[in-house]
Design brief:
This protein is an alpha/beta fold and about 260 residues long. About 40% of the residues lie in helices and about 20% in strands. The strands form 2 sheets. It has a 5-stranded mixed sheet. Helix 4 (about 50-60) links the parallel strand 1 and strand 2 (about 65-70). It is elongated, with a radius of gyration of 23 Å. About 40% of the residues are buried.
Length: about 260
């Protein structure tokens, strides 16, 4: 076929809203095919720092790809996924919240447990409530914050308290662990039951107190690609990064435990 004059080809390309290269049917490399794509990752709030870091690693290895995170309480994220929110990957803070997604057949395959996490008591650096052990949280004069029972950190807190045969009346129940931690950071609470990793990520803004009953309420974290993932290939690669030696190193440095 006779080649059209360049001026005509330019006008045609502009009218069609596409590039001359694509209009001419030229192929692209596998890397080029990912450019301009967005990977949506739904992840438990306690994974905020580590996944944000690994997301940058993923973007560096996939030029043109943007990783967007939705961090929050795992139960809320699971509900959003089952209601049709566009997502490629789900990393939950408990098997129970992941089960909501798998039961709805919204996971592409069997989830994989990639880390574990345990609770600590977070208090302000000055520790005004003089908290030293879990039993101290039963003091009605203390302002104690927990995660809501349906959130993994809240379920873990209830399990730890049951193991110690203790009852605590929190002044508030938050929808994710970061919100509970913030109450302590702002001196709006004397103590909060949060994950050890969140205490570590807060640096010197809070002090963490270990307690033996935490061993009775360790949470497994599962991750899965999703059945309706807009970017299934990228989703699989992201999960591979999380499960890789590099991913494990970042997570363990943050205080997560191996499964």
């Amino acid at each position: 076929m006779e080649r059209l004059p360049r001026s005509v080809r330019v006008l045609l390309a502009a009218a069609l809203g596409t590039s001359l290269t694509l209009a001419a049917g030229c192929g692209s490399t596998g890397d080029d095919s990912s450019k301009g794509k967005t990977l949506f990752v739904f992840a438990a709030a306690s994974l905020t720092e580590t996944f944000t870091s690994l997301g940058k690693t993923f973007e560096a290895a996939h030029p043109g790809v943007k990783v967007k995170f939705n961090f929050g309480g795992s139960s809320t994220l699971a509900q959003q996924i089952t209601q049709g929110a566009p997502a490629d990957v789900f990393a939950a803070a408990s098997p129970a919240t992941m089960k909501t997604v798998t039961d709805a057949k919204d996971a592409a395959g069997a989830p994989t447990t990639f880390v574990r996490n345990r609770l600590e008591i977070a208090v302000p650096p000055s520790n005004p409530g003089k908290v030293k052990a879990l039993k101290d949280l039963t003091n009605p004069k203390l302002k104690v914050v927990e995660c809501a029972p349906e959130v993994p950190c809240g379920a873990a807190a209830l399990k730890a308290l049951a193991a110690a045969e203790l009852k605590v009346k929190p002044v508030s129940q938050e929808q994710d662990v970061k919100a509970a931690l913030t109450k302590v950071q702002l001196n709006e609470a004397d103590a909060a039951l949060v994950y050890r990793t969140d205490v570590k990520s807060a640096g010197g803004k809070v002090t963490g107190i270990d307690f033996p009953e935490a061993a009775q309420a360790i949470n497994d974290y599962p991750i899965a690609t999703l059945a309706k993932a807009p970017q299934p290939a990228l989703a699989k690669e992201f999960v591979q990064l999380i499960l890789s030696g590099q991913g494990k190193s970042v997570l363990q440095q943050a205080g997560f435990e191996s499964p």
